[in-house]
Specification:
By secondary structure, the protein is α+β, with helices and mostly antiparallel strands. The chain contains two helices and twelve strands; from the N terminus they run H-E-E-E-E-E-E-E-E-E-E-E-E-H. Helix 1 runs antiparallel to helix 2 (206-215). The longest helix has 37 residues, at 2-38.
Length: 216
Amino acid sequence: MRRGYATQLDNYLEMQSYRFSSFTFILALLLILDAALVSALDLSGSSWIWTTEYNAASGAPAGSRAFRKTLTAPAGKIAIYADIIITTDNFYLLYVNGASVGSRTNTNDWQQAGRFCIGLSPTTNVIAVNGTNESIGRAGVLAAVQVFYTDGTSSTAVTDVSWKAITSLPTGFQAVTFNDASWAAAVISGTYGAFPYAPIPVPGTSSICARSCIAT
């Protein structure tokens, strides 16, 4: 009898634990959706960035360049997913934690941002971009990344001089473990909305992104 009672008690406690964890998970998702509904991620706070070879007079040489941004969750917070909007004059390949998640390869498509909803690691995540300038002249990567946490809060990172950039494409540069300590800081190659760049349309909304991430 005692053994049977102990087994029933263990099953009960396991069921309660499952119910609690499920409730906690659902509550976290509701908090995230609520945060996404009130947020309005756009590119207005972002700057066009490029490598140090860029100058205002002649722009930048044609070619592909690598860019990286490491995002670390604040103490006590756990990252769930990121809402990323990005464009590049002219082309880009976007990576998150080493995985290819999106691209733009048509010459004039840089005038419309791409939007990607990507699941994240709990603490440290790396956004990497292979940006290509098709011909000598203006060049830039423009992006905003909103990271959502399990407590319903979020933080936003934009393209600015805190990003790292290099004039080549080192093997494995998109990996989290890649050492970019020797890379220079990116330089500002243009101000958002200022000539010759008009404001960039952004598809979708943060709440749509949230729902698509939760669905997957």
